[in-house]
């Protein structure tokens, strides 16, 4: 393989490595973001539960206000009972008192029901807060792991960029421009091997004459079908 073709193969492999760092970093950050999203979702649920508890407490306060009214009414009826004399008035007051007592009992039962719901809401809130603590601990640990992974990737990427800079400094500018022109549309398949006499970019079969040029590797040869730069793989590759 001539020097220029070997440089193009090397450059293509370096560019592939560089381009592969972005999805690796995205994947790492995505896992981190998922944990953060879980915590945000839990915080939203906790806030929702707190609002529901506040509404329930407001209902209890309102019901207690009615209880005070019913108690006052029952006391007032008791006072009136001592003053009335006719049987009709007594029956009316007894009926009014029974109704007030029923309302008072129903109000007390409603408060009991609301308090039980609040207890359940507080249990749910405690579970959510415990889950949040667990996820937060996991997130803290993951943050450290991500920082280490990103640092390692950055070190790798820095070394790869150094390799690329050294390679570019030694390359023919016309050949480099030719490569970059193909790479604009072919991306990381600008330089591809020939396997079983087929281009591994478009997978079309190469004619015998072109294939013979590729095997000799004396010149830079492009695929007659797609225009990608072709090379014959070595045994090591």
From TrEMBL:
Keyword annotations from UniProtKB, A to Z: Coiled coil
Domain of life: Bacteria
Domain C4-type zinc ribbon span(s) in chain numbering: 198-230
Signal peptide: none
Pfam family, one: Zn_ribbon_9
Domain annotation CT398-like coiled coil hairpin: ranges: 11-184
Entries under InterPro entries matching the protein: CT398_CC_hairpin, Oxidative_Scav/Glycosyltrans, Zf-RING_7
The keyword Coiled coil appears for this protein: yes
Coiled-coil parts of chain: 32-170
PANTHER family to which the protein is assigned, alphabetical: PHOSPHOLIPASE C-BETA-2-RELATED, SCAVENGER RECEPTOR CLASS A MEMBER 3
Name of the molecule in the record: Zinc ribbon domain protein (DUF164 domain)
Organism: Campylobacter vicugnae
Lineage: Bacteria, Pseudomonadati, Campylobacterota, Epsilonproteobacteria, Campylobacterales
């Amino acid at each position: 393989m001539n020097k220029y073709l070997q440089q193009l193969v090397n450059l293509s492999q370096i560019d592939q490595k560089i381009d592969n760092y972005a999805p690796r970093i995205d994947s790492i950050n995505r896992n981190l973001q998922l944990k953060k999203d879980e915590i945000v979702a839990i915080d939203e649920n906790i806030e929702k539960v707190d609002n529901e508890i506040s509404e329930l407490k407001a209902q209890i306060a309102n019901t207690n206000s009615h209880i005070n009214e019913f108690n006052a009414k029952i006391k007032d009826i008791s006072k009136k009972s001592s003053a009335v004399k006719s049987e009709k008035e007594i029956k009316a007051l007894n009926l009014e008192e029974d109704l007030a007592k029923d309302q008072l009992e129903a109000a007390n039962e409603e408060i009991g029901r609301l308090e039980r719901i609040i207890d359940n809401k507080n249990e749910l809130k405690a579970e959510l807060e415990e889950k949040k603590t667990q996820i937060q601990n996991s997130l803290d640990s993951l943050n450290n792991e991500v920082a280490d992974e990103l640092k390692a990737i950055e070190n790798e990427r820095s070394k790869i960029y150094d390799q690329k800079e050294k390679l570019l400094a030694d390359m023919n500018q016309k050949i480099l421009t030719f490569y970059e022109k193909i790479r604009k549309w072919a991306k990381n398949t600008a330089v591809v091997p020939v396997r079983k006499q087929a281009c591994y970019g478009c997978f079309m079969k190469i004619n015998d004459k072109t294939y013979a040029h590729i095997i000799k590797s004396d010149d830079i040869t492009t695929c007659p079908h797609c225009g990608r730069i072709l090379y014959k793989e070595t045994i090591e590759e």
